[in-house]
Amino acid sequence: MTRRGEFRIIQDLFAPLATAPGALALRDDAALVTPSPHHDLVVTTDTVIADVHFRSDDPPDDVARKALRVNLSDLAAKGARPIGILHAITLGAETDDAYLERYARGLSEDLTTFGVALLGGDTTAHRPAAVDGQGAPLTVTITAFGEVPHGRALLRSGAKPGDLVCVSGTIGDAAIGLRALTGALQPLVADHRAYLVRRYRRPEPRLALGLRLRRGATAAADVSDGLCADLGHICDASGVAAEIFWHAIPRSRAVDRRIADDPALRDLVLGGGDDYEIAFTWPADRRQELTAISTETATPITVIGAMRDISGARAKGVTVIGDYGQVIPVAQPGYVHG
Ligand code: ADP
Ligand code: MG
Q1: What are phi and psi of 83, to 5 degrees?
Q2: Which of 131, 251, 254, 280 registers the highest number of CB atoms within 10 A of its CB?
Q3: Residues 68-97, mean pLDDT to the nearest whole number
């Protein structure tokens, strides 16, 4: 394995991506960020670890993209416009030059795609054979900065009884895509497999939607831990309950096909994570605006239920209702970290 030293990794691979003036070409101790006047900085950080949050045989460019995109998804869910990131990487035992070059290319492409500045970071390595003699895992922590006009960020609190519960895109793809990668699914048609795996490896941060939702949504969260778990967070923060309908939850053809083969996979739609869609609540008397928002932002939006007063609801938190009005138990309460 050949791997250049840490100074060269920074200068050869990451400095060329740090073109924003505030990054000071990665040749200073810190970076400068100037938010627009009368804006709040929105700050978030997320770590991805090999074989926990991505697979060590995922393409290196997708690893960089995912590390970035999961953070952008948090900004999207707050209605923020991304500004820049800090990027801390702890090299894995098997992270060689070829890997890092592909990784940096993926990072570079996505920074351009999403208009985000690389402002700085940190580059470290484990001691050889640090973890139980196993190869130490590649670990990436990205901290993302965004901005919103002062006081206008979307929060998890703010949902009211009667609000519609909405979700972008389709749910369950990523969790079932991961099962396809671990070989835990029946063999599937090649294009379904490719679609589901891509949804796991390359989530789509819903930035345009997030910006637009500032003009109306009462609460929002991104769906990273699982639909019911994240909707549950909105319920907790807002002091309301949610009733959602199984038949209304948007699902891809690939997912519906898998569920037809194995009904137990329904749990992965309700409780699996990694979709990075946005769940939000919206005033019922403004429902007709949702179609225009969907078109404007090129983002599918589906109404899946409504918020209820806690006292009038069947249960605390999220209740999923099946085709015959029965309550569907949610088996897996979201992704358990660790
Ligand atoms: P210091 O010792 O002053 O913290 P470092 O040697 O860690 O400096 O980093 C030098 C410069 O390179 C800094 O501007 C830092 O932000 C940047 N940098 C280090 N690692 C990364 C990385 N993985 N991605 C982006 N920038 C990085
Ligand atoms: Mg440092």
Answers
A1: -110, -60
A2: 280
A3: 97
Q: Taking residues 305-334, report their average pLDDT.
A: 87
Question: Which among 249, 183, 227 has a CA at the least distance from the CA of 318?
Answer: 227
Residue 135 is given by DSSP the state P
**Side chain identity at 101, as an amino acid letter?**
E
Q: Is 121 in the pocket of ligand 1 (CB under 6 A)?
A: yes
Q: Say what the pTM is.
A: 0.95
* Partner residues linked to 46 by β-bridges: 142
In the sheet that holds 39-49, the strands lie side by side as: 39-49, 139-149, 81-91, 117-125
Which listed ligand is nearest to 68 at the C-alpha? 1
Ligand 1 within 6 A of CB of 125 = no
Amino acid at 60: P
Give the ligand with the smallest distance to the CA of 138: 1
If DSSP states are collapsed to H, E and C, what string results for 21-59? HHHHHHCCCCCCCCCCCCEEEEEEEEEEEECCCECCCCC
Exposed, middle or buried by CB within 10 Å (0-12, 13-18, 19+), for 21?
Answer: exposed
Residue minimizing CA distance to atom 4 of ligand 1: 29
Q: Is 103 in the pocket of ligand 1 (CB under 6 A)?
A: no
DSSP letters of 70-123? HHHHHHHHTTPEEEEEEEEEEE-TT--HHHHHHHHHHHHHHHHHHT-EEEEEEE
Q: Over 90: is that where the pLDDT of 268 sits? A: yes
Per the CB < 8 A criterion, the answer to whether 169 and 249 are in contact is: no
Burial readout 190-209 (b: 16 or more C-beta within 10 A, e: otherwise): eebbebbbebbbbbbbbbeb
